[in-house]
Amino acid sequence: MGRPAKQLPAGVPLGIIRLGQSGANRTRFVLASRAARAGSCERSKLATWSEATLARLEAWLSTARRKRGQTLDSMLNFASKVFCYTSTCAETKQRMIRGRQLGRGRWHGKLDLDGLLSSPGFVVVRGVVDPIDCATLVDAAEAHYGAAGLRTSAKRLHTQRSLGRLAGERVHHLLAGGRATLQKTTRAEVGKRNEAADVAWNNAVREVAHCAGHFEEQSSDEAVNLCVHGMARGKWHTDSTASLAYVVALTTADATEFVQIDERWPDVAACGAARRKSFFQKAWAEAPTATVKSAEPQLQPGDVVYFYTKRIHRAPPPPSMGKPRYTLFGAFCREGKSEWAPPTSYKTEMQWGRDMYSD
């Protein structure tokens, strides 16, 4: 750009000199004086803005008056705070509006709060996801897992050795070599070289989010889970974050089970540490003998169970031989916050539940 020319007096018109593109929809430019007579012009430092923001800057320059002694750099800095911050502020405001739906008192969206925190502890909505999308995801997941043989009743295909050969991440296994309760795979893995599965996954999450009153991009920790005969029985647990989770039945399936106690479950983000600790000590102590509820009748492809992740819950028993269970799980929370590291026994699980709220 060369050495800047001597500063010109106030009142000289100012304009923008575009110096080319820099990335998607970004333009490099300098603010420059436009002297009435020929000669070099004064230039500001190089900046990179979007075209929409530059348009606002140009409109402002047509009426702006430069103060005596004011440099173009200082004018550009001022304009940056006004126009760039305004744009960012609008985006931030939108994110905040969306984020509020996941926070204290809003995590449940438009779902029945009494159903989630009192009895039965979940909300079932039938036929949310198109069964065709469910079938597409099952086909893609089955191919990814290498699980086609598990649709038969042949016992040799349900041995621990054969289950250990399934692709995907083993979920809730207690020790190395121990039995897992599920096999889990991500959208990227299922959708790899399978555009139809990626579209079906998008469709499913969009419908699930819309039904709950959330934005689809708020859905995190998504996974297609596989459970088959021979896998371990799920243990009672709560997830690591307080949020709204969902399970979509991709095949005919039993539903997630929930502990019932004679007290309303607290919104842990809206109560103090002492209240949380007292409640969960009681809840974990009652869990072994408490009433258990799940959705009736069985879930059909496309049905969704929504639940509060701090409700004590567990997966239903493994299905009968030859009837693998495929589900799509997700939660409206920050990525990686709904994961659960299982304890090694029920006793330590109950202690873990108490310690988790000791703050």
Q: How would you characterize this protein structure?
A:
With 359 residues, this protein is α+β, with helices and mostly antiparallel strands. The chain has 2 domains: 14-100, no CATH class; 113-355, q2cbj1_9rhob like domain (Jelly Rolls). The protein has helices at 51-61, 72-100, 113-117, 131-145, 160-163, 187-191, 195-212, 273-286, 346-355; strands at 14-21, 26-33, 47-50, 122-125, 169-171, 182-185, 219-227, 244-249, 257-260, 291-293, 304-308, 313-314, 325-332. It is elongated. It starts with 13 loop residues before the first strand and ends with a helix. The relative contact order is 0.15. The model is unreliable at 1-10, 341-350 and 352-359 (pLDDT under 50).
Write the layout of secondary structure elements.
Layout: E1 14-21, E2 26-33, E3 47-50, H1 51-61, H2 72-100, H3 113-117, E4 122-125, H4 131-145, H5 160-163, E5 169-171, E6 182-185, H6 187-191, H7 195-212, E7 219-227, E8 244-249, E9 257-260, H8 273-286, E10 291-293, E11 304-308, E12 313-314, E13 325-332, H9 346-355
Antiparallel strand pairs: 1-2, 2-3, 4-11, 5-6, 6-7, 7-13, 8-11, 8-13, 9-10, 9-12
In short:
The protein is built from 9 helices and 13 strands.
